[in-house]
Structure formats: C-alpha cells, structure tokens
Amino acid sequence: MASKTDRVGGDTARVSVVVTADYHDLVETRELRYFVAVAEELHFGRAAQRLAMAQPPLSRAIQQLERRLGVVLLHRGSREIMLTEAGAVLLREARLALEAVEAAERRTRRAAADRPGVVLATKAGASRELLSKLLDAYAADPGAVAVEMMLCGPGEPERLLRNGSADVALLHRPYDTTTGFDTEDLHTEPQVLVLPAGHPFADRPHMSMTEVDALTDLPLPRWPRPDGSYPDGPGPLVRDHTQLTQLITLGRACAVMPESLRAQLRDDHAIVPVPDAPAVTTVIAWPPHSRSKAVADLVRTALRL
Fold it and tell me: What InterPro entries does this protein map onto (predicted)?
C-alpha cells in the first residue's frame, strides 16, 4: 500500500492509496456463481449437479478462489461442509454482486427493445387508488410510453426492482426495504386490525399491538421471507391478500394492515384502529443509476399526485 499527502480544505491530510493486484487476480462472476451454489448446498456433489458440471473442476475452482482471496471459505469435514466467517461474508456479497450483474443484463436488453416502455412492480391489491390515478395521469403525458404492470405478492416488488426485472416499483415501508434505491414518499397512513365480523373485540374503539399479539385464538399470519421460508410461530402460512382475507373470515387469523385496504374488505370483516402500529408509507422507488426518461417522467407524475 502506498500513500500520498493531499490538501483538503486547507489542511494536510494523509490519503492511503491501495495498489491493486494484477487484473488477472480479480474474482470472476463464474467463480462467484460456483461459490454461491456450494455455499447454499453445503455439498459439492449437489452443487455440481445444480451447476450441470462435474465435481472435480468445481472443487478446483473453489480452491482457486480461496487462493486468489487468501482466505479459507469452507471448513471441509469428512461428512459435512461449513462456511467460515469469511465464507458467510462472501456468500452475502456474492449474491448482491450476481444480482447486480443480472439486473444490468435485463435493463440493457430492455433498453435495446424496439418498443420503449417501463416496467412497474407493485404488490397486488395495495395502493389501488393511487396506482389507478398514477397510470391515468401518466398516460395523459404527451411523452408517455407503455407501462407494463407486474402485480406481485408481498416482498416481490422489491426483489424484482433489485434484480432488474422492474424499472420502478411502489414499495411500502416498513415492510419493504428501500436501502440502495432512490425513493420519493407518496402517502403515509395508519394501520388497522382486521377481525372476523362478530368477534368479541370487533366493536372496540381501538386496540394496542400488545393486545393484538395476545389474540391466541386469532394469530397473526406468517408471510414468506425473500428466500421462500417462513418464520416460526402459530399463525397460518399465507402468500397473498385473498388467502389472508378468507382465513380471517373463517376465524383462523387476524391481520394488521394499511387502513386503505378496508375498501377491499367485505361485510364479514370488522376493522379496529391500532394507534401504536407503525404507519405505512407508500414510496415510489427506482435504481439510483437509472437514466431512463420514462422512469423520471413516471416519478414526476407520481409526485404531482
């Protein structure tokens, strides 16, 4: 590592300059894909099968990656493989890097399409009124292009925006993570508890989250994580809004959801305000490096609303 002296704001500062290794020592995308497969399967045979390759060259590739990085990524036992701390870090970072590469490929192909357009992802059933107004207002713009809608399950709009399948998305904090995106807040609303009509608490003026958590006869639902697994708990497993509302009607669950969704509920549901539940903010989000005029116009239209 070399260093040089630079002058910042009138003061002398010591700036460290990292001298990188030769270009050929850089980690390749192919190596990251190999490592992710092994790290997720924790078995070279299964990983090789998943990658449609033989096991010996896969083992050699991982050994070469370890030599290149100068760290041990895997503890290799006689019966099992375990990630080292360094391996766990690389798995997390490699997933992000591969996702970024795939996103770049998708956006590049879409930019070269004969018919320009923009792909908007949003959770099915959420922000319905806002979405309708946004699409109508944007369509009235003389420079508007075609908007392809991707109506998804919970958590999917964020994933589709990150992997490049969508150009822009309507996300909902705190349920969606907006880190790494450019965003503009569009609407904030309180949350309410949805109960089956006729429940003893249906006529309550309000309830606290502590009281909601104590409803053992109506447990809160369990939504899937990004990897498809479910958290532990007594609540039923759900994947979409329709499934959830039916479970509430049958007296198998309750749910805390944005107040605007009450318009989609039926007479066999009851609504109780939950003042201490976190407010839900609908945001429009897009990749920070986007230079799409269509995305910029769509964002400006959303802000005008």
Answer: LysR_HTH_N, LysR_subst-bd, WH-like_DNA-bd_sf, WH_DNA-bd_sf
Residues forming beta bridges with residue 144, ordered by sequence position: none
Q: Which of 86, 142, 301, 272 is nearest to 194 (CA)?
A: 272
For the chain, how many residues are written? 305
Place of tokens 């920070």: 288
CA of residue 233 relative to chain centroid, distance = 22
Cβ proximity of 213 and 233 under 8 Å: no
Strands 146-152 and 117-123: parallel
CB 299 within 8 A of CB 286: yes
pLDDT (0 to 100) of residue 263: 81
Six-digit token pair at 115?
A: 């018919």
Contact, 195 vs 274, CB < 8 A?
no
Report which DSSP code applies to 152: E
Task: Check if the beta carbon of residue 169 is closer than 8 Å to that of residue 157.
Answer: yes
Amino acid letter, 123 = K
What DSSP state is assigned to residue 222? Answer: B
**How many CB atoms are closer than 10 A to CB 74?**
20
- Mean pLDDT, consecutive 10-residue stretches, the chain (305 aa), reads 40 37 67 93 93 93 92 88 93 87 76 74 87 93 90 88 91 92 95 95 95 94 84 90 91 94 86 96 92 90 91
Distance CA 128, CA 114 (A): 30
Contact 272, 190 (CB under 8 A): no
DSSP-derived 3-state class of residue 35: helix
Q: How far apart are CA 92 and CA 71, in angstroms?
A: 16
Q: Which alpha helices (H) appear in 112-240, and where do they start and end?
A: 128-139, 156-162, 209-213
**Model pTM score:** 0.67
Burial class (CB in 10 A: 0-12, 13-18, 19+), 68: middle
Tokens of 152: 């998804």
pLDDT of residue 6: 40
Token pair belonging to 248: 């509430």
